[in-house]
Write a structure and sequence with these properties.
Belongs to the ACC deaminase/D-cysteine desulfhydrase family. This protein is α/β, with parallel strands linked by helices. 36% of the residues lie in helices and 15% in strands. The protein contains eleven helices and ten strands. The chain has a six-stranded mixed sheet. Helix 9 links the parallel strand 8 and strand 9. The chain is globular. The structure holds pyridoxal-5'-phosphate (PLP).
């Protein structure tokens, strides 16, 4: 398969790269009576992967505009966001500092080994300190001089991140190869869901919750949808052939209907019971498309459950977003020395 790279940090190049992400129709008996396609955002770039690339985009542009050469962010030992931020730092010339939850282990997770190799400075903090991460004085408490560095919250969850997810929705509207009936994705915080629901106006969005979140994903998604209503100058960029797309303010349905599937978290965040392992093996074997255990395996498992229960109208054409995260597979290999 052709390797794609994000080569320069500007909106038009990013939109072009995103517009070239392939859509694959998958052939498997796991989804009876419906047609399933996958948009392969895991292929956007080999190391700045999936929805984390979209969430970083406007943050990186903002950093450049501010003349900032340093990004500070935080996450856990297997964080896709830490990995993508470190990779973007080395690609586009930012210093990166990763604040990592927990003590530095004797052997780093594969994710953090990569992050260090990409040049990220890792700063390990206690779980207690980490809990302060949304406080304004978080960096000061850790004795980190913010200077004019850009602080990006865990997971890329800020308004700039939501605008990136919104851009993904615009790209989908502009590039979908057929008319779909439903759009599906995996939800951790619900930010990507909100971004998509704010810009995908022609079909309902379904989010599979990958953790036991109570009502918080719905609430957070609604929060980001509200925040996205305010226009932002950073949100320019037209999507469409040759940059002649329709004006981005012309949303016909805002937001799109969105629905959350909360019964397919398989026991909680990063829980990976044998039945999910078995499902993932079958899916990968039958389709040739790899998934990650934390997000996209649960997405496809949730879609499978809905399909076999008959809750999706027969003949429906479903588009599932492959949001990346494949680097995290290494955390689940039998030989891995680190567990979640
Ligand atoms: C972070 C992540 C998600 C969840 O995104 P949210 O915006 O937090 O809901 C989904 N898939 C993958 C692969 C991720 O890394």
């Amino acid at each position: 398969m052709q390797l794609r790279y994000l080569t320069s940090l500007d909106l038009d190049s990013f939109i072009k790269a995103a517009s070239e992400v392939p859509y694959h129709r998958i052939e498997t008996d796991l989804f009876p009576n419906i047609q399933v396609w996958i948009r392969r955002d895991d292929l956007l770039d080999p190391i700045i992967s999936g929805n984390k690339a979209y969430k970083l985009l406007y943050n990186l542009i903002e950093a450049t505009e501010q003349g900032t050469d340093t990004l500070i962010t935080c996450g856990g030992a297997w964080s896709n966001h830490i990995h993508a931020t470190a990779a973007a730092g080395t690609r586009f010339g930012f210093r990166t500092i990763g604040i990592i939850r927990g003590e530095r282990p004797p052997e780093l997770s594969a994710t953090l080994q990569d992050a260090e190799r990409f040049g990220m400075h890792l700063r390990f903090v206690t779980r207690e300190q980490y809990r302060q991460r949304s406080q304004p004085e978080f960096l000061k408490l850790l004795g980190i001089d913010e200077g004019n560095a850009l602080y990006i919250p865990e997971g890329g969850a800020n308004l700039a991140g939501a605008r990136g997810a919104q851009l993904l929705g615009k790209v989908i509207e502009a590039t979908a190869p057929i008319r779909f009936d439903q759009l599906w994705l995996a939800c951790g915080t619900g930010l990507t869901l909100a971004g998509l629901a704010s810009s995908v106006t022609s079909l309902p969005v379904y989010g599979v919750e990958v953790l036991k979140a109570g009502d918080s994903i719905r609430r957070d998604a609604q929060h980001w949808l509200e925040a996205l209503k305010s226009p932002s100058p950073a949100c320019g960029g037209e999507v469409g052939e040759g940059g002649t797309g329709t004006p981005t303010s012309n949303l016909s349905r805002f937001p799109a209907d969105f629905f959350l599937i909360n019964q397919c978290h398989c026991g909680g965040y990063a829980k990976y019971p044998p039945y999910l392992q078995e499902f993932q093996r079958t899916f990968e074997h039958q389709t040739g498309t790899l998934l990650d255990p934390v997000y996209t395996a649960k997405l496809m498992y949730g879609l499978h459950q809905e399909a076999i229960s008959g809750r999706i109208p027969p003949g429906s054409k479903i588009l599932a977003v492959h949001s990346g995260g494949l680097q995290g597979r290494r955390g689940f290999e039998p030989t891995a020395s680190n567990k979640k």
